[in-house]
Amino acid sequence: MYQIKGKEKIFIYTGPDGSGRKTIAKMVATAFDMQTVLSYTTRSPRHYEKDGEDYHFVDVETFKLMQEQQEFLESVEIDGYYYGIREEDIVQVFQKHPLIYLTLNPEGAEKLEKMYGERIMSFFIFADRETVIQRQKERQDPEEDIQRHMAHYDETMGYKKNYKHVFENYDSPQVAFQISELIEAFLDRGVIVTDY
C-alpha cells in the first residue's frame, strides 16, 4: 500500500449517483491545483462519458487480471460491474500534485478511509430523491440505469450518518465554495512546523 507522504492529501466525494459529486469536485479542484485519479470500471460508458476523462473503461478480463496482479488500492462490485482505483495512478499523480481527489461510492470511500485515516478528507454530497431522478433524466441516462441507481439510493443515504462533512447539493457553486473553505482550513491545520 502506498504511504502518503508530507503534504500529500486525498479528498473523497461520495453520495448517491446524480447528486452532483463530480461537478462539485471539479469546481473545488480548480481552486487548489488538485488532480483527480480516475476509477477503472467494467461498465459501458454513458453517452456523455469519455474513456480517460470520466473513467478508464476496461473489459472484465482486463479488470480481473489487474486484480490478480494486485494493481488496485481498492475495488468493489456493484450490480455486476467492477470499479477500482489503481495504486500506480495515485503514485503518479502525487509525483506532480500533493492534492488529489476521488469520486467514489461509499464502499470504496470507506476502504480508503480505513487505509489512510486523517490523510483523507471526505465529503458526502446528496440531493433528494426527486432531484436525483431529475438530474439523471436531464443527462439522458437510460431508464434502466436510473432505476438501477435509485435501487441503491436509500442504501447510499444510509452512509450519510458516518460523515462529518455532509452537503445537500441544491446549488453546486455554493456547495463548492463551502467545501473550498473547509479544505482551506484543513490544509492550514496540516502545516507542521518542524524547525525548532
UniProtKB/TrEMBL annotation:
Swiss-Prot/TrEMBL catalytic activity: GMP + ATP = GDP + ADP
GO-annotated molecular function: GMP kinase activity
A single cellular component GO annotation: cytosol
Family matches, as Pfam families: Guanylate_kin
UniProt keywords, alphabetically: Kinase, Transferase
Span of domain Guanylate kinase-like: 8-184
InterPro entries according to UniProt: GK/Ca_channel_bsu, Guanylate_kin-like_dom, Guanylate_kinase_CS, P-loop_NTPase
Family to which the UniProt record says this protein belongs: Belongs to the guanylate kinase family.
Function noted in UniProt: Essential for recycling GMP and indirectly, cGMP.
Name of the molecule in the record: Guanylate kinase
Species assigned in the record: Cytobacillus oceanisediminis
